[in-house]
Amino acid sequence: MLHRTRHLFIRQQTSVINAIRAHLAEFGIHRKMTITTAGTITGGTGEFYGIQGLLRLSISADLQAGTSESQVELEYWISR
Asked: Quick check: 12 and 20 in contact, CB under 8 A?
């Protein structure tokens, strides 16, 4: 479940960055962009009842160089 949620966050964030890059490129603006976001993890079912944690995501893209980089940090613990 956590991996699917993480994958969804990354996919959505990448889609937003690509859309922004495409719109800026139409106007001739080529810049390096970095977006960083953080979220909390709470709840869960079964063995993961009481799970808590933090999810941090940072995405950088440089249109001129044609490079992009994603970094995901997931920190969690289960309290009983």
From this structure: no
Tell me the per-residue pLDDT of 25-47, one tens digit each, with 9 for 90 and over: 777 766 777 778 888 878 777 77
Q: CA separation (Å) from 39 to 4, 54, 55, 66, 67?
A: 15, 6, 5, 28, 26
Q: What is the pLDDT of residues 6-22, one digit of tens each?
A: 788 788 888 887 888 78
- pTM here is 0.49
CB atoms within 10 A of CB 61: 20
Contacts of residue 21, Cβ cutoff 8 Å, sequence gap at least 6? 33, 61, 63
Hey, what are 36's tokens?
Answer: 């960083």
Q: How do the domains of the chain map onto residue ranges? A: 2-78
- CA–CA separation, 80 and 77 (whole Å): 10
Angstrom distance (rounded) from CA 27 to CA 47? 51
